[in-house]
Write a structure and sequence with these properties.
Blueprint: E1 2-6, H1 16-24, E2 28-33, E3 40-41, E4 53-55, E5 66-69, H2 83-91, E6 95-98, H3 108-117, E7 121-123, E8 144-150, H4 157-170, E9 175-178, H5 182-188, H6 202-213, E10 219-222, H7 234-244, E11 248-254, E12 259-260, E13 263-267, H8 271-282, E14 290-296, H9 303-317, E15 321-322, H10 330-336
Parallel strand pairs: 1-2, 1-5, 2-4, 5-6, 6-7, 8-10, 8-11, 9-10, 11-14, 14-15
Antiparallel strand pairs: 3-4, 12-13
Helix pairs in contact: 1-5, 2-3, 6-7
Length: 337
């Protein structure tokens, strides 16, 4: 499918959905919408993903099948300055895919336009109706379950899970990625958006996916969300930890991050604190341990400096570590396998 990605004023640094799709989706990205950098290209700033032209509006895109909202601001709200682009796509009979908490299919104007022009709206963050509480049986599956956990939001948990799953598959290992957030669901075409699920059902939503896939594969790589110390999102993190009953954890961090993103008055604790917190919290439900670390070194220009930061991170968490995008993922893949 040919898609256009809406990422106004946020590309690339604050458009993690757009970047995830550019890096991992099988869809062809024909354009990125960003009013701040028209007449440039994706490879001007992000050379290791699909390339595409960056344009100011959807009016400049000649041929596409769907418009995808490629940004997810804190709170998942809809910016009304995007309305013209969404309206134009729907009037052209193009599908619109959104990972916002604001459901476009409940927007009266958008719903009417979709109906009139034969377009579909897919609100990725709308969970299905049959979710329920966890039974505490995710550990009954045959697969080994590996969960990425983080020091903060937006440190690369989805990226690390996908990198490890795909690296395992390239070795001929039967591995599957378990998507828990909007970007992973867009990439894979299935999954439960756990940050939109009723809190009582969060662990159950994760368990449901583990039970669905766990006897068909040898390894499941579960996409983590948030961080256990987050003042807003810790409940989601705990729900995934308990619902997945993970056998092993990979701790993810962004180099240079010292405070919670968007909540800068909350400083990040020492790395050793995270290891103890995650392992102690998991233990009463299912014993697990942090066996490896993944460091997002995108903010570091030189490879030599990035490798030094990885080495320091590995020492701090007392486990093997790497940046699986910048360097080889095998260092941590060997550990989790």
């Amino acid at each position: 499918m040919d898609i256009a990605l809406l990422a106004h004023e946020k590309f690339p640094d604050e458009a993690k959905t757009a970047l995830g799709i550019l890096r991992y989706s099988d869809d062809t990205v024909v354009a990125v919408l960003d009013r701040d950098s028209p007449d440039t290209r994706v490879h001007d700033t992000v050379p290791d993903v699909q390339d595409a032209p960056i344009v100011a509006s959807i009016d400049e895109v000649e041929s596409y099948d769907a418009l995808v909202i490629g940004i997810a601001p804190i709170g998942g709200g809809f910016d009304d300055t995007w309305r013209d682009d969404v309206r134009t796509a729907l009037k052209a009979g193009k599908d619109v895919i959104s990972g916002l908490h604001y459901f476009l299919e409940d927007d009266e104007e958008f719903a009417q336009l979709a109906d009139e022009h034969g377009a579909d709206i897919w609100d990725v963050r709308k969970p299905h109706d049959d979710l329920t509480v966890a039974q505490g049986i995710a550990d009954s599956v045959d697969a080994e379950v590996i969960l990425t956990v983080g020091t903060d939001c937006s440190v690369g948990k989805m990226t690390v899970s996908l990198e490890l799953a795909r690296a395992a598959q390239e070795r001929g290992i039967d591995a599957e990625f378990i998507p828990t957030g909007q970007t992973g669901i867009m990439i894979e075409g299935w999954g439960n958006p756990v940050d939109r699920v009723v809190s009582d059902f969060t662990a159950g939503a994760v368990e449901e996916m583990i039970l669905e896939k766990g006897n068909d594969h040898d390894y499941l790589f579960v996409e983590g969300q948030g961080t256990i110390i987050h003042p807003a999102y810790s409940a989601v993190t705990c729900g995934i930890l308990h619902g997945s009953m993970a056998d092993k954890l990979v701790l993810c961090h962004a180099a240079g991050r010292e405070a919670i993103h968007g909540y800068e008055s909350f400083a990040l604790p020492d790395f050793s604190t995270y290891r103890q917190l995650y392992e102690d919290l998991a233990r009463p439900v299912h014993e697990t341990e942090v066996v490896a670390g993944a460091l997002n070194t995108r903010s570091i220009a030189e490879d030599e400096d990035a490798q030094a930061a990885v080495d320091d991170f590995a020492d701090a968490i007392d486990a093997p570590a790497t940046d699986p995008v910048r360097f080889d993922p095998d260092t941590i893949l060997d550990e989790v396998l």
